[in-house]
Prior knowledge:
The complex is a heterodimer of chains A (617) and B (345).
Chain A: E1 8-12, E2 14-22, H1 27-40, E3 44-50, E4 65-73, E5 86-89, H2 92-98, E6 107-111, H3 117-122, E7 139-143, H4 145-152, H5 160-164, H6 167-178, H7 184-193, H8 198-217, E8 223-227, E9 235-241, H9 242-257, E10 261-265, H10 272-279, E11 287-290, H11 294-306, E12 310-315, H12 317-333, E13 337-343, H13 360-365, E14 374-377, H14 383-398, E15 402-407, H15 408-412, E16 414-418, E17 463-465, H16 480-496, E18 506-507, E19 512-519, H17 523-535, E20 540-545, E21 547-549, H18 555-560, E22 562-569, H19 574-583, E23 588-591, H20 600-611
Parallel strand pairs in A: 1-8, 2-5, 5-6, 6-7, 10-11, 10-12, 12-13, 13-15, 14-15, 19-20, 19-22, 22-23
Antiparallel strand pairs in A: 2-4, 3-4, 9-16, 14-21, 18-20
Helix pairs in contact in A: 1-6, 4-8, 6-8, 7-8, 9-10, 9-14, 11-12, 17-20
Chain B: H1 4-9, H2 31-45, E1 53-57, E2 72-75, H3 81-91, E3 96-102, H4 103-109, H5 111-120, E4 124-130, H6 165-171, E5 176-181, H7 185-197, E6 202-207, H8 219-222, H9 224-230, E7 231-233, E8 241-242, E9 248-253, E10 256-261, H10 283-289, E11 299-306, H11 312-327, H12 332-337, E12 342-344
Parallel strand pairs in B: 1-2, 1-3, 3-4, 4-6, 5-6, 7-11
Antiparallel strand pairs in B: 5-11, 8-9, 9-10
Amino acid sequence: MDEVKEKKVEKLADVTVRFAGDSGDGMQLTGTQFSDTTAWVGNDLSTLPDYPAEIRAPAGTLYGVSGFQLHFSSLDVNTPGDVPDVLVAMNPAALKKNLPELNPNGTIIVNTDSFDPKNLKLARYESNPLEDNTLDGYHVYKVPISSLTSNALEGSPLSVKEVARCKNFFALGMMYWLYNRPLEKTQEWVKKKFVKNKDIVDANLKALQAGFNFGEITEIFTTRYIVEPAQLPKGKYRNISGNEALSLGFLSASVKSKLPLFLGSYPITPASEILQYLSSYKNFGVKTVQAEDEIAGVSSAIGAAFAGNLALTTTSGPGMALKTEAIGLAVMTELPIVIVDVQRGGPSTGLPTKTEQADLLQAVYGRNGEAPVAVLAACTPTDCFYQAIEASRIALKYMTPVILLTDGYIANGSEPWKIPDIDELPDISVSFRTEIEGFYPYLRNENLARPWAIPGTPGLEHRIGGLEKADITGNVSYDPDNHNKMINIRNNKIKNIANDIPDLKVDGDETGDLLVLGWGGTYGTLKDAVKRARAAGYKVSQAHLRYINPLPKNTGDVLKKYDKILIPEINLGQLAKLIKSEFLIEVEQFNLVRGLPLKSKDILGKITELLGGNNGN
Amino acid sequence: MATNEEVKEKKLTAKDFASDQDVRWCPGCGDYSILAQVQRTFPEIINKDVEKIVWISGIGCSSRFPYYMNTYGFHGIHGRAPAIATGVKVANPDLDVWVATGDGDLLSIGGNHFIHACRKNIDLKILLFNNRIYGLTKGQYSPTSEKGKITKTTPFGSIDYPFNPVSLAIGADATFVARTIDRSPKHLQEMIRRAGEHKGLAFIEIFQNCNIFNDGAFSLLTEKDTKDDSVLVLEHGKPMIFGKDSDKGIKLDGVKPITVDLASGSYSKDDLLVHDEFSDEPILAMILAHMTDHPSLPTPVGVFRQIKRETYDGGIRDQINLVTEKRGKGDLAKMLYGANTWEVN
Lengths: 617, 345
């Protein structure tokens, strides 16, 4: 046996890796496992799963390529990385599709076994890129991953096909070796996940270990990398995606409001996971109804709110459109429901698995009549947890529907989360009306909220519905003046919420040449870009809206303090439109609607363009 | 308004179910009879307190019903009453949830919710006020209007075939399916009582006369000189006999029902089909459902089918109890910590 050469160890501060392969190659799983282990060893990280809408597109094709990008660091991480440093390409299509985005000096690890004439043709390669000059300038590691996997699994009772499927674990093991990560968390996961099939457990564990060992003994890899733990604030952490954080947020809201949680929902990408998570929380008394359609999802939530539950419906753009009429009913009946819209690429069916921010105006205005609702937006995966509680708080306190916007990027992306102490979460408990004397369904308290008198309460029998209500009594009323009055009451109720939400915070100087104003899932990108611009001497600050309707009270004052306002959005300028109409100011826009998160280098470019050489250099 | 003390001591009568709102249906509308029979029946069948009753409706003339009942009520949006009612029932299974709806509301815009409510066996009582016309929008044909009907939107006659609501409900596996007529108050009361006692989805199709836009739609079944020969009153365990002089019966020829003359001497009661409400198989109920509006057969009223099956809301409750028993009551702190955590010091 040859002597194993001592490998060089190099310390890195910051790495962006992209795993890419066929949609059946298990790239999402590989990426998730690498992320979980990376979080567990203490790096800060951000992820970007990017996969096609087709579950198993024809193998080897360009449109079947599924990717998972992960940015991890010993420093603060705000984005999944603009440009990958390392590409793991399981086939020619994955290479072809992802190469243009790779860092020009980047590293490529390819599965050479898949570079056969058939796959090259499917990827539309005229000649083999491993043999011509396509990859000049990159560090290319050619690894026969498929055959190494099947060699490692010789004697396994699994079929040839099943053995081939283990190659992602080989690749994962190899990456664990390369970046010096332990196998332990993935080993535990495999044992638990495939508990019913010992042969699959054995094969996956063997493939994982073989990949790791390969790193150790092969002469291909001469260097091993270390990325030290990040300096995160003290506390207990876990890695969490936006959809899971959101589900736990609503669960916490249920505990903190002392109300049973009800979810009426219909599966839709990228929101289905929330229904899946909440369906598994049965021992918290969570009731989930997988309804026959989107309309039934929201309608059942309205019924559950009427009956006194903390009621919720979850969806994405097309489902939002279908729920429109029912949300108006919740406005008229003044019942507390939360509607979650995990935005995806539109219009119509659009880009189901991609991210976008183009439902903002739909959320704020998309109903018949004057139908104001509170609109909140989460800005990171972990913020989904807190905004779920906040949306519930506002709905219950003001007896109103609340729309919470997230998006495909923060819903599927993950990051380390400092787990909160549950005693520090706000108490959002409410009381139902039980006193008969003086009861009317449309009486109002100081918040303009009407009493919540739930069926089952003796003596408070009353009727509500979608017809206009007489002030106080709640009887059906067609009186012109009453209608005008009620329209204004409903509007003021939502406006008043501005007194009960935090001010808009500025990150950076309180005055300056430019304020970058964003909302939703672009937070990390904008933070990164502004940080870089400030480092380059530009007088630029950042503010990010988590409340869209109403806007924080100080929004206008904040905007006044900068010469220019830049609003970058993954739409054609929906927040820009709101801000312009609300404050009658000019704003600069950056709009790029590619179904992908914005890149901080593009924002930095826009900042530079707006401020010219005005950075004191 | 009563005080808390007064409410506790209340003993229920029909009047207690009448709200203070003026009823605003057209004079002569069949809906008045349905409201009256419900208010008359409820004190007898409601073994719970009045505050546990909830009426949910959609949109249409029939859907104004909740406003006239002195119970909790919710006038929803078009077609969605079964979905709203599902939320109410699942949120609080102790409530008795009733749905008032019409043929446009339940079978056109709300058709999807209806069949799924049947399929899931949600413990709801659905009263379909079927007048075979759109009343509130002033006279367009409905999904139960007979083919060829001339209305404002079908000036040359409708070209689509109607739904048979009883057949649809049986096909969707509703666990209680009945039919009655607004002009038969005693029978209507009996059907409401039976529906109220049923555990699971109960569906009653009520033939209801719209005297403005579809007057006389059911006159064959309600007028003195024709009704006995046109209506078959179903009774469990009894042979199917009808006719003014109880001289006609229903017999099966293969799977085809036929009318036979008992007076001729060729047939006796023993030859007739005997009704079985509780059959596990939906075949008999389906055969009876398709006797509706048949040129040579009477239209059946009564309970077509009643079966026992676990309810959806009961299933949710049982599953919560079972999982809670197995895993212990949920601990939020543990849940937030999840499986893989690490400490930063």
